[in-house]
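Figure 2 data, in text form.
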Amino acid sequence: MSIPPKYSSLWGKPARMRAGGAVALFASLTLSGCAPTFVHQPAPLPDPDPDVILVTLSGRCGFTCQSADNWDYLTASGGTAAISDWLRQRGRHVRTISGTAQVQDTYRSRESAAEQHGYPWVKAQLAAALAEFPRAQIIVMGHSHGSVFGHQLVRDFPATRFRLLIDLDTQCLLWTDYRQSPYAGGCAPDPAHRGQRASDVTPDNVEFNLEVQSSGSDVQRVGQGLVYSPIRDRVPNIRPDGTRRGIVTLRSSDNHIMMPRAGSQSMTLVRGALEQLGF
């Protein structure tokens, strides 16, 4: 799939782009808020001595399931590999850390046969990787509730510089699932930041922030079935000082549920941003 035109002049400006593109085939009827059922793919193998650490965080498993069953659909859909493989093709050595919007360390989900890893596990893995590879550039990519946890991760490492934070349709709907957890404030409005939710404020230890927001039809016909997802992000991120320094917000023709797939336009936009930033 072709890379979109360069948009270096957009970094740091309140700009948005809409680009057309085909949506990858998904040949089953899916009625869910966040994550469809995918064919499971093995996680990418770690490279020795990585110069890039890629952290991916999947969101809620959907409206019809419980957050206890959140699972790593970014890996299962090929979205994680779509980015890590692209980086490797450009000569990068990549260490991938993939987890879910879950307050448990490791757990089982009824949505997947594989053992799942929640946010505490991801945080511990990143701490270990940073200690071993302190010069590696860090990319964090989250989808839906996973983007909220992506911002949490950045805040939990205030002394660490993150090269790129990627937010795929950040969502706070159903965040009440976490109201009894240490992360309850992840979607809370912050009066110090113009009332923006914490998930819409890009911390200063992030060099660049790419927001990709869904704009496709709630119901998309794909193959022989339909993909339905009515939710989308419409709040542009800001910095703590109220500016949009180093932030770009783009619109994808995907709907919310299609964004994590390897063949989605959202992943094309992510690769375009990585190319522009010199990865």
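Caption note: The chain is about 20% helix and 20% strand.
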